[in-house]
Every structure is written in C-alpha cells, then in structure tokens.
C-alpha cells in the first residue's frame, strides 16, 4: 500500500514499484488518481481491499490489503472502518457485506460479475438438497449471496480441501465449479458425480460416490489446455507452470504447482526457476514481475478476466466520490449466508 496523498510523491512511490512494468506516461495519470483516492479514503474513513487480479497500477497503490478471496474475506471481517471499497468482483464484495451488515460496502463497477457465480441459482441448490436430503452443501465463495444462504459452509480455492475434510461426512454436495470439485475429489480420494449429466442418479441407487458436483466453469481457467502446457514446455523446457485449481484436473496434473492466487504468488517468491508460467488471470503475472524483477514471468496477456478488468483506479475514485455502487443484500438472505461464510472463516 502507498499512503501518499500528494500526487508528485505518489508518482515517485509508484515509479519505484512499477517503473519496470508500467510506462511512465501512464504512471503520471494513475498516480494523480491514486493520490486523490487516498485523500478521500481518509476523509470518508474507508478501507480498500484489492484482489490479486487487479491491474498493476491499482494493485500496487491504494489497497490497504491485497490477497486471494480467503485473505480478503478475513480482512473484511476484521475492519473497523465505516466503508469497505472492494476492488474485486461482485461475489467478493457481497462476502464483505455478509460479514459486515452494518457497514457500507462499495464495488467500483456494477458490471463485475463472474461466470461461476452466474452458473447456479438458489433454486438449483434447493432442488439438489431435495434430491440428496441430509447431504451437507459446500459452496465455493464464487457464488451470490442467495446461493450461499442455501449452503452449510463456504470454501475458497485456498481452503476447499480443509473445508470438505472438516465436515467428516461420507458425502458432500460441492458447488458450483466442476473443475475445483474434481480437483478436490482427487485430493481427498472421493468419487464424484454430476447429477445434471445423469438425472437418474440419486442417493437411493447406492452408487459409489462421495461428492456431488455442478457443471459451472470459470470462463478464464477453462481456456487452458494440456496442449498449451506441452507447447510451452517444448519452447521453455525449464519452465515452472502454476495452475489455479479452477483449471481442469488434466491441466492441474500437467502443471508443477496448483493453489489459490496467493499460494501461486508465494510459490514464485520462494522458488528459483528460470521461467514461470501462470495459468490464471494474466494481471497477476504483471504484479509478480513488478515485485520480483529477478523472476522471468512468461506472459499470457490474452487471458484477462473480463469481470476483474472492469475495476479500475478511475472507477475506484468515482466509487468513493459518489458512494457507488452500494452492495445490498436482503436481510433474511444475508443472515443465512453469514452462517455459511462465518463457518468457513472459523476453520482458519
Ligand atoms: P482466489 O480465491 O484463489 O484468489 O481465486 C478467486 C478467483 O476468482 C479465481 O478466478
Ligand atoms: Fe470468476 Fe473466473 Fe473471473 Fe475468477 S477469473 S472472477 S472465477 S470469471
């Protein structure tokens, strides 16, 4: 975080951090905006949370805290500020609101959705619960509040295995990411079914499975293939490949490391490979390159999340100026969703 409110000093601080990855004329513009955001942040007693996917000029300037979904949910639970500005996508800002019903939670754009969150509705979860009565529902945080409200517990990519194991049950419903579910099933040695593929499968049929999944996918991580990995390895035989667990199990198996966005950052920081390739949203590679000029990050600049990409410094400034866009969740949904999110946070 840079706390400067003076544009010239902000420019110098951003230049020191980002001079190697952001052109100077852009830094000049961005530093003025960032300085004004910092001034308003103090005036309005706000905290800014920034997801690891934020573009470098934002990620490296105004957020008080940066991190993966789990870390930011924890930060949101701890803040004593009046306003939380969430530089991430809508489901993340909703999670912050669920944990802070009395505070004003803002998201700088009202167009920052998520293909996973859009893949399932609360009615879908209710239907699954009817078909598989008594089976606990684990919901990835990449879902909207009404879906969380139908769940027993949430998880993120950083704690999915721990959450499933904490339940100590034979069978779990794990929603909505097909690939994350398959990856967790593999890690925990469980067999998985996708009842939407075969509507006849119910618990009563005594089939051998312990996980029930849903066919949602992340439109970004779904793009990576094993063929991409083979091609990169041919070109850069000593590359270390890191894949987010929203990638398919085949892609994860062909990679060298898999973990949450923060786990990937830490892995690059603590190892010394000749090259790294991240199979995830591409801004994160720029952020790692800025913080670690000695590491060679192979760039995949076409794989940008269109939703995360909505969040800019310009919109963050407007968000604080106009107090927009305010996250609102109906009280009954919020209360039920809070149980699932708080249960996850308590797992640690
Ligand atoms: P993390 O929880 O690993 O930060 O992932 C969030 C996300 O949306 C990945 O696409
Ligand atoms: Fe959603 Fe995928 Fe974008 Fe993450 S990268 S916010 S899962 S669409």
What this model shows, in words?
With 348 residues, the protein is α/β, with parallel strands linked by helices. The protein folds into three domains: 7-113 and 308-322, Rossmann fold (3-Layer(aba) Sandwich); 117-217, 3-Layer(aba) Sandwich (Rossmann fold), CATH 3.40.50; 221-291, 3-Layer(aba) Sandwich (Rossmann fold). The chain contains 15 helices and 13 strands. The protein has helices at residues 7-18, 24-43, 56-59, 69-78, 90-99, 122-131, 145-149, 160-167, 178-188, 226-235, 249-254, 261-270, 283-291, 313-322, 331-347, and strands at 46-51, 65-67, 83-87, 104-106, 137-140, 153-155, 172-175, 192-193, 211-212, 239-243, 257-258, 275-279, 297-298. The strands form three sheets. A five-stranded parallel beta sheet has the order 6-5-7-9-8, sandwiched between helices. A four-stranded parallel beta sheet has the order 2-1-3-4, sandwiched between helices. Helix 1 crosses helix 2 and helix 8 packs across helix 9. It is globular. The structure holds 1,3-dihydroxyacetonephosphate and iron/sulfur cluster.
